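Task: sequence in, structure out. Protein: Fe2OG dioxygenase domain-containing protein.
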Amino acid sequence: MQSCLSLKLSSKTSLAFSLFFDTFPNSDSMAPVPISPINVGHIDDVQELRKSGPATIPERFVRDMTERPTLDTALPSPNTVPVIDFSKLVKGNKDEYKSEMLQLTRACEEWGFFQVINHGIDLSLLKSTEQVAKDFFMLPLDEKQKHQMLPGTVQGYGQAFVFSEDQKLDWCNMYALGLEPHFIRVPKLWPIKPLKFSETVEVYSGEVRKLCQHLLQYIAMTLNLRTDFFEEMFGVAVQAIRMNYYPPCARPDLVLGLSPHSDGSALTVLQQGKGSPGGLQILKDNKWVPVQPVPNAFVINIGDTLEVLTNGKYKSVEHRAVTDKEKDRLSIVTFYAPSYETELGPIPELVDENNPCKYRTYNHGEYSKHYVTNKLQGKKTLEFAKVESKIPT
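Result:
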């Protein structure tokens, strides 16, 4: 069985510049390039489908019976995603701080999801970011397709994680952009319209980046690690943004807005559009639990990276999105992850006889490539990192 190794920076950097967003640093255009030719077949734009109002949902969107969502949102009161008051972590008194840290620990251990209120990011910035995102999706199709996502890539406008012509599609339009470090950006995919889109996204993403850094400091403390542990280990963290638009669907019981998956990031930060219906569901105790975002809060979830680093103490959680018959839904999602050069594996302090090593040590760039070249399918991509158990002879 492979042993857990100390975390370090890899000397092999050749992968780091062409993964996750599949860009080549030596190309003047920084254009996204598929790993290999991929035939994804015809993909209908769901906003255009909604406009045309077909009598039936196209077959590629209709899920198998076992995958179809349950839309009943009535839940017992205990099934509530924990809420963290960030202001009490930053400037609360001793009792408030202790209480929030316990709540944060419980959220990471038992849920893998939590909501953050009083996060310190100006609400007007959230509003303006939501507005430019919505304005982009409301542009004519030919304008949006100037920034089209190519098959096998994950930046631009369209549907990501589609790798075959018979794969089921999500009832969602996506617009994704690499942010940090700058070499993952594809300039031609950044839009001129709507006005102030790029400027707004830059400011917003800088604020969310600082929030991620601060949250990781407190998460480190819940693990009895140095406050700067993750920041030091991650290096120049990778950050991306994806805007998801879910038009109303005449048969929400047949489709999914987003296929079940866990995130490959360390942390994921979700902002739901104001007035949007609930659509996020998480898998809790083998049941799909709807998450109703608190107004002006961010929904945070633990990604695969933190599950590996904590040796499974904090787990990434499978989640999906469902649609609504009458209302559209907008979400803005930020992914925060280590540098591609970082070697990842369980933190030695979290491995002992009672908690043996569950994951191997690997290069984060290699895992990112693995993640973005596979369709969304629960937590299957995390199999990449697991230590293979040997059957005693």
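The longest helix spans residues 197-222.
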